[in-house]
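The following block was generated as part of the benchmark described in Methods. Ligand: glutamine.
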Amino acid sequence: VTSVELTQAHLDRIAAVDGPVHAFLHLDPEGALETARKVDEDRAAGVELPALAGVPVAVKDVLVTEGLPTTAGSRILEGWIPPYDSTVSANLKAARMPILGKTNMDEFAMGSSTEHSGYGPTHNPWDLDRIPGGSGGGSAAALAAFEAPLAIGSDTGGSIRQPASVTATVGVKPTYGGVSRYGAIALASSLDQLGPCGRTVLDTAMLHEVMGGHDEKDATSLDEPVPACVDAAMQGATKDLTGVKVGVIKELSGSSDDGGEGYQAGVKQRFEESLERLKAMGAEIVEVSCPSFEYALAAYYLILPSEASSNLAKFDSVRFGLRVEKDTVEKTMLATRAEGFGDEAKRRIILGTYALSAGYYDAYYGSAQKVRTLIQRDFAAAFEQADVLVSPTTPTTPFKLGERLDDPLAMYLNDVATIPANLAGIPGMSLPSGLAPEDGLPVGFQILAPAHEDARLYRVGAALE
Ligand code: GLN
């Protein structure tokens, strides 16, 4: 097929199914077809092209894209058209990938269901009454509904992996600093990481290599080569894991005395079956314990709101987007923020400013940072016993839209297994591990590796696929 045919086929699919799914906030058919046309011309002329040239991609609306509306799912940025590209969107363009459009997300990436989008929720293509995960539910749903073959996500506490888990797709959170955050609208700068989403491990590996690499525009960007994700996926596809040690995280596996709570039976069953398959391919399975993970959620919900409240201070009615004009500057700011931010953003801004206020800083932010160190130490000890660590990605299959909207804590609990990786800066993958027998809905398998060792995820992931 030509790139124009491939791109048009996806645009047609979007036109046919995106009404009820609502994966996209904005489409760019002309731009995508134009890129595709040029790729086809160059291919016909014998020009050497990058591996993914002509393959369309959907981009989470957290990424700034020159000339295309960018809202991060918030009404406060409605109508804003950025004058520049994020490094990742520039990388996609350099790879000659047609950008289909921008995908829906929870406002500023705060959420686990995409219900906190200022533009209405995305629906899970497996069951339209259920959540597609969040915050990157739009990218995951676009893949699951075959509206895009590849997509970009961002993962601050699980927003790539949890949506992948509940839509039976693949999502990877790279090592912190492995992909440039320049031009990604920040949620919590010490936790945020952009990453690739796809339907297979190999597709995801190819996109990872396009996205990653050193960038002078991001002070936290790692100055090292992009991990050899594709080679590792090819190696994994041989289904030989002889010599690979896989550590089951006791506290997150749902199978131990203290980790079983809240884990759905079918999730545990599929997880155990995946372990058996790993064993059959020659991997050695060991159990590891990470006792500090008990405090991960609490630490995360102090660190994240603290950093988010600071990052969101720039939406002041002056520099970007919405402006609700009043008779003084202060009232204009207040009215703009009151109208532009949704409930979850407000909740986290209030939590964050409280945690950072004078006199409370040490008690809250300081303590949370100490927990973060303990979690890093738990991982370091666990990785002495195993090459990769595994758990179910989420304790349950996708819940119903609306079910947890009035109960933020229940919503936050969906992220217990994904958050530790962000606190430690390590890479993680979620890939499908079948459907739960009791409800026929997707179950995800999570693989974690030490920092800089992203390639291990692809080897083990491709073996399991
Ligand atoms: N669901 C988590 C939260 O609400 C993760 C968000 C994310 O990774 N962006 O914070």
